[in-house]
Design brief:
The chain has about 425 residues and is α/β, with parallel strands linked by helices. The chain contains 14 helices and 14 strands.
Length: about 425
């Protein structure tokens, strides 16, 4: 007989980890790419370009569809390459940095232009794009270099910009984002398959539109004055001319998203006999507002499972400590549920990387915040990662092979 949703003997920690993984497994690049290419891919793949943190996993899914003469360029984050691709001579592999670009990001951008421009009209081009592509590959206007790009990225991240606003700026300054890369391609058969890490699932926003035929459908994101000043100082006072959208030659499909992951987590919880109280994409916005909404729903709601998706923003103090938005959210939630023995929560980035750390996020219960005396100080210093590591609340997965924003799951039990 399956467990009752309120029964205290449920292994809370094990359930939360397994439920989170059920969501992530459903959107892994290998599975999503293989299924999409089987159903929607071209009869023959002549060229393949994969960019993003999930690029390696997506390429593993694409391998059965490749011919012996297929030429492939894969660009991904350091440490995210599947060893099975290293011996495949069809693949040229470039690793670069995320979330702040480095020199290899510019090398990768120049190589991506060469690769796309080399595709003949009669050759098919398949693009596999996932989150992280914006930082991993870039080509800047003449006269601008890595120092400017790094400073601009650091400023946006520290200011708590959401991904839509960051990508709007990146599209503005880039020579390959917002449809500009594919505008260079002569192929009459371009197929883009994208794993979405943005709320809108708009191909023009994912990876700043590096795999899109046109800029974002709605580009009305306001750019703050301090960023406008940085752009003006660099000579970027007006938008560049956007390329004409590709039409007959281009098809783009979203093949995995946060919605898919949350649905899989819900199915897992139901299979364990648990009630689903909430399943919603409501993690967007300032992290303090997000914590208030999430904690209020859980603390005031009935026993059962609560599933949240999205991507909150964090404004960092000067000289921040170690951590990321999900580690910060997990510690904030640990403070909210302090002393409760009926609530546990996991908060983690689906890509396995939370900010500039090696952790995916945190897993907490009502006892965690009281295990050390410096929880409030850690939150104020944006040093949640250090606290969680020392309090045995850090959740580490390594690269997951996907990237569909963040996934937060809470279990509220009835405890006698």
């Amino acid at each position: 007989m399956p467990p009752d949703p309120g029964r205290s003997e449920i292994d809370q920690h094990r359930f939360l980890v397994d439920c989170w993984w059920a969501g992530v497994e459903s959107v892994k690049g290998r599975i999503a790419a293989h299924g999409a290419l089987s159903q929607y891919g071209p009869r023959k793949i002549d060229r393949l370009l994969a960019v993003g943190k999930a690029a390696s996993s997506m390429c593993i899914g694409a391998v059965p569809h490749l011919g012996p003469e297929t030429k492939c360029l894969m660009i991904t984050k350091y440490g995210h390459v599947d060893r099975r691709l290293l011996g495949d001579r069809r693949f040229e592999i470039i690793e670069s940095a995320h979330p702040v670009p480095d020199k290899k990001s510019l090398v990768a951008g120049a190589r991506a232009i060469d690769f796309v421009e080399s595709v003949s009209p009669d050759h098919s081009l398949v693009l596999l794009v996932s989150g992280g592509a914006s930082a991993l590959v870039e080509v800047l206007p003449e006269g601008l270099g890595l120092e400017f790009l790094s400073r601009l990225t650091d400023t946006m991240l520290a200011s708590g910009f959401d991904i839509g606003r960051i990508n709007a700026v990146r599209t503005r300054i880039s020579r390959i984002k917002g449809g500009k890369l594919l505008a260079r391609c002569r192929s009459r058969s371009i197929h883009a398959f994208l794993i979405s890490d943005v709320a809108s699932d708009d191909p023009g926003v994912i990876g700043s539109g590096v795999g899109s035929s046109a800029p974002a459908a709605r580009d009305d994101t306001a750019i703050p004055d301090k960023i406008e000043s940085m752009l003006a100082d660099a000579g970027l006072t007006a938008r560049g001319d956007d390329p004409a959208p590709l039409s007959r030659s281009y098809t783009g499909r979203i093949i995995a998203s946060n919605t898919v992951a949350r649905a899989a987590s819900e199915r897992f919880a139901r299979s364990a006999g648990l009630d689903i109280v909430l399943n919603e994409e409501s993690l967007h916005g300032d992290i303090h507002d997000v914590v208030r909404r999430v904690s209020g729903s859980i603390l005031n709601g009935p026993p059962g499972v609560y599933i949240f998706g999205g991507e909150p923003t964090v404004v960092l103090p000067p000289d921040p400590g170690k951590g990321g938005r999900m580690q910060h959210l997990a510690l904030e939630m640990a403070r909210c549920i302090r002393g409760r023995n009926d609530i546990g929560l996991i908060a983690a980035g689906t890509d396995g990387t939370d900010g500039p750390t090696d952790a995916a996020g945190g897993i907490v219960d009502g006892s965690l915040f009281g295990r050390r005396a410096d929880g409030n100080a850690a939150l104020g210093a944006a040093d949640s990662g250090t606290f969680l590591r020392q309090a045995d609340g850090l959740f580490v997965t390594g690269p997951t092979g996907t990237n569909v924003m963040d996934l937060v799951i809470a279990l509220k039990r009835t405890v006698p």
